[in-house]
Amino acid sequence: MSASGNKEDVDGRVKPGHGGRIKRQLLRIAGAATLGIVLICGIFAAWVASLGPLPFEQARQISTTIVDRNGKLLRAYAMADGRWRLPVDARTGVDPSYLKLLLAYEDRRFYSHHGVDPRALGRSAWQFASRGRIVSGGSTITMQLARLMEPRRERSLSAKFRQMIRAIQLERQLTKDRILDLYLALAPFGGNLEGIRAASIAYFGKEPKRLSLAEAAVLVALPQSPETRRLDRHPEVARIARDRVLDRMVEDGRVPTEDAVQAKAVPVPRLRKPMPILAPHSADQAQANVKDTPVIKLTLDSGMQKVLEALARDRAIALGSNISVAMVAVDNESGDVLAHVGSPDYFDERRAGQVDMTRAVRSPGSTLKPFIYGLAFEDGFVHPESLIDDRPIRFGSYAPENFDMSFQGTVPVRKALQLSLNVPAIALLDRVGSSRLSSRLKQAGANLVLPKDEVPGLAMGLGGVGVTLQDLVQLYSGLARLGNARPLREIVRSTDDARDNLRLMDQVAAWQVGNVLIGTPPPENAAHNRIAFKTGTSYGYRDAWSVGFDGKLTIGVWVGRPDGAPVPGLVGRTAAAPILFDAFARTGKLPAALPKPPKGTLVASNAKLPLPLRRFRPAGELVRTGAEQAPRIQFPLNGSRIDVDRGNDGQFSAMPVKVAGGVLPLTMLVNGVSVGEFDGRRQRLVEPPGPGFARLTVIDAVGATDTVVIRIQ
Question: What is the sign, positive or negative, of the torsion defined by CA atoms of 153, 156, 158, 164?
Answer without folding.
Answer: positive
